[in-house]
C-alpha cells in the first residue's frame, strides 16, 4: 500500500457510531423511558389483564376475594354493676364455594367487662382475645359468645365494645391470582349459536356503518370543495353530528323515530306512506317480496347503521376535504380542456389521489365502529337484532356476572381487529401520485 493510499484510508469517515453518539443514544433512551413505561402501563396492563381473566372462571363476585366477615355486639342490656352480659361475635365465610384456611380472630375485651366463660377455640390473655378457628368451609357461619359481668367502668362508657375493631386473618385461594387456567370460557362462547349470530351482526354493522360514513364524508367533501357563498358556515354546520354529545343525539333520534309520538312516523302516516307507525328501533325485521322471493330487511339494525353513518361522517369529511384542497388543479384544467366530464374527473383524477386517505379512514373507522358500544346501547340496548360483540361483553360480564366469558369475547374482538388491520395494511390500495 502506497503512502497516498494510506492517506486516503486515514481520511475516510469511521464506520458505525462513536463514543459521543453512544452516550447521546443512551441519554435519549433514558429520557424516553418514563414515557414508554407509562404507555405500557396504560395499554399493555389492561390488555394483559383481560387475557388473564379470559382463561379463568371468574364471576363478578370473585372480584372480592374470599374473606371471613365478623360482626361484634354486646347482648344483655346490663343496667347496673354485676349484671350479666354476653360479648358475641357473628362470623361467616363470604364465599359460597371457597374454603378459608388458618382463620384466626383477634380482639380486645371491652373496658369494664369481666369474662366468666370463654369458647373452646378461644384463649384469653389479659384483655386480649385470640380465637384459632382453623379451616372454615364455604357458607360457614358461627357465633362465638363470651359470657361475663359488667363493672361501673363499662356502664360509664358509651358502648365500649366499639373501642377496638376485631381483626380476622385467613388464607384462601383467589381465582384471580392463582395459576389455574381453563378454556371453558372460549368453549362456552363458541358453542353458543348466539355468538355466531352476534358476530355476523357485528360485521354487518361495522362494514355498512364504516362504508356509509365514508361515502357521506366523500360526498360532503366534494360538495363543499367548490367555492360559493356561505361555504364556511355550512362546513361548520356539517360538524354538528360529530361534536354533539352522543347521549343528546341518541335521545333525539329515539324521540324522532318513536312509533307513538315521533315526528317521522307522524309525517309518514299523514302523507299516507304507511298505514301504521313503524317501530324503527324496536322491530327486528320487515318482510318484503323481491321477484316473488320473500326476504327480510333488518329494520332496527339498519336504523342504527344510519345513525352511525350520520354521526361519524364529519370526521371523514374533514380529512377528505383537506386532501382535496391539496390536489394540483392544473390536471383538472387539462382534463376539462380534453373534454372530461365532472364524473370522469372525479373517477380518474380525484379518486386515485384520495385512495391513501380513504384507506386510512376505512381502517380507523372499522376499528372504532367494531368497538362501538355506547351508540347501540343508548338506541336499542342491543335488542331487536342489534346485539354486537361489545354489547355481548357487557351482557356476559355484568348482566350475567360472568367476567371470564366477557373477557373471552373481548379477546375475540382483539384478535379479529388485529387480524383485519394486518391484512388490510398488507393489501390496502396505495395513493397514486400523478
What is the topology?
Blueprint: H1 3-11, H2 19-54, E1 68-75, E2 84-93, E3 100-108, E4 113-117, E5 122-125, E6 128-136, E7 141-150, H3 152-156, E8 167-172, H4 184-191, H5 193-223, H6 231-238, H7 240-243, H8 246-256, H9 263-270, E9 286-290, E10 293-297, H10 299-325, H11 330-337, H12 342-370, H13 374-379, H14 389-399, H15 403-427
Antiparallel strand pairs: 1-2, 2-7, 3-6, 3-8, 4-7, 5-6, 9-10
Describe the structure.
It contains 15 helices and 10 strands. The protein has helices at 3-11, 19-54, 152-156, 184-191, 193-223, 231-238, 240-243, 246-256, 263-270, 299-325, 330-337, 342-370, 374-379, 389-399, 403-427; strands spanning 68-75, 84-93, 100-108, 113-117, 122-125, 128-136, 141-150, 167-172, 286-290, 293-297. The strands form 3 sheets. Strands 1-2-7-4 form a 4-stranded antiparallel β-sheet. Strands 5-6-3-8 form a 4-stranded antiparallel β-sheet, with no helix packed on it. A hairpin with a 2-residue loop joins strand 9 and strand 10 (293-297). The relative contact order is 0.10. The mean pLDDT is 87.
Strand content: 15-25%
Distance between the termini: 52 Å
Please identify the structural class as seen in this structure.
alpha+beta
- The chain-level mean pLDDT equals 87
Helix content: 40-55%
Give the H and E element order: HHEEEEEEEHEHHHHHHEEHHHHHH
Question: Could you describe the largest sheet, including whether it forms a barrel?
Answer: 4 strands, antiparallel
Rg is: 35 Å
Sequence of strands across the biggest β-sheet: 1-2-7-4
Spans where pLDDT lies below 50 across 5 or more residues: none
Topology, number of strands:
10
- Tertiary shape: elongated
Number of H- or I-type helical stretches: 15
Amino acid at each position: 500500500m502506497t503512502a497516498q493510499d494510506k492517506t486516503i484510508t486515514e481520511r475516510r469517515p469511521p464506520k458505525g457510531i462513536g463514543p459521543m453518539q453512544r452516550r447521546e443514544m443512551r441519554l435519549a433512551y433514558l429520557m424516553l423511558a418514563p414515557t414508554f413505561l407509562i404507555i405500557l402501563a396504560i395499554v399493555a396492563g389492561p390488555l394483559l389483564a383481560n387475557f388473564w381473566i379470559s382463561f379463568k372462571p371468574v364471576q363478578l363476585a370473585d372480584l372480592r376475594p374470599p374473606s371471613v366477615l365478623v360482626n361484634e355486639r354486646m347482648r344483655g342490656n346490663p343496667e347496673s354493676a354485676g349484671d350479666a352480659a354476653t360479648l358475641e361475635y357473628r362470623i361467616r365465610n363470604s364465599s359460597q364455594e371457597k374454603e378459608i384456611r388458618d382463620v384466626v380472630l383477634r380482639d380486645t375485651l371491652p373496658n369494664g367487662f369481666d369474662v366468666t366463660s370463654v369458647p373452646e377455640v378461644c384463649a384469653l390473655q389479659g384483655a386480649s382475645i385470640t380465637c384459632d378457628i382453623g379451616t372454615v368451609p364455604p357458607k360457614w357461619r358461627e357465633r362465638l359468645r363470651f359470657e361475663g359481668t359488667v363493672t361501673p367502668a363499662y356502664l360509664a362508657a358509651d358502648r365500649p365494645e366499639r373501642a377496638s375493631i376485631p381483626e380476622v386473618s385467613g388464607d384462601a385461594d383467589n381465582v384471580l391470582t392463582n395459576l389455574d387456567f381453563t378454556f371453558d370460557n372460549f368453549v362456552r362462547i363458541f358453542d353458543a349459536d348466539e355468538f355466531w349470530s352476534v358476530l355476523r351482526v357485528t360485521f354487518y354493522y361495522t362494514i355498512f356503518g364504516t362504508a356509509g360514513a365514508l361515502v357521506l364524508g366523500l360526498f360532503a367533501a366534494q360538495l363543499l370543495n367548490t367555492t360559493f357563498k356561505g361555504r364556511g358556515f355550512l362546513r361548520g354546520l356539517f360538524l354538528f353530528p360529530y361534536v354533539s354529545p352522543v347521549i343528546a343525539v341518541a335521545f333525539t333520534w329515539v324521540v324522532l323515530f318513536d312509533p307513538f309520538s315521533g315526528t317521522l312516523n307522524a309525517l309518514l302516516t299523514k302523507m299516507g306512506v304507511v298505514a301504521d307507525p313503524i317501530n324503527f328501533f324496536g322491530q327486528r325485521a320487515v318482510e318484503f317480496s323481491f321477484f316473488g322471493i320473500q326476504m327480510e330487511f333488518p329494520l332496527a339494525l339498519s336504523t342504527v347503521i344510519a345513525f352511525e353513518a350520520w354521526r361519524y361522517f364529519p370526521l371523514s369529511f374533514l380529512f377528505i376535504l383537506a386532501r382535496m384542497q391539496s390536489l394540483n388543479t392544473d390536471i383538472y384544467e387539462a382534463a376539462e380542456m380534453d373534454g372530461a366530464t365532472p364524473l370522469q374527473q372525479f373517477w380518474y383524477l380525484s379518486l386515485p389521489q384520495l385512495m391513501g386517505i380513504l384507506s386510512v379512514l376505512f381502517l380507523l373507522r372499522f376499528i372504532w365502529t367494531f368497538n362501538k358500544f355506547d351508540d347501540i346501547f343508548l338506541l336499542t340496548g342491543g335488542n331487536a337484532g342489534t346485539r354486537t360483540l361489545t354489547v355481548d361483553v357487557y351482557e356476559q360480564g355484568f348482566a350475567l356476572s360472568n367476567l371470564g366469558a366477557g373477557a373471552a369475547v373481548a379477546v375475540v374482538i382483539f384478535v379479529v381487529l388485529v387480524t383485519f388491520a394486518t391484512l388490510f395494511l398488507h393489501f390496502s390500495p396505495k395513493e397514486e401520485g400523478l
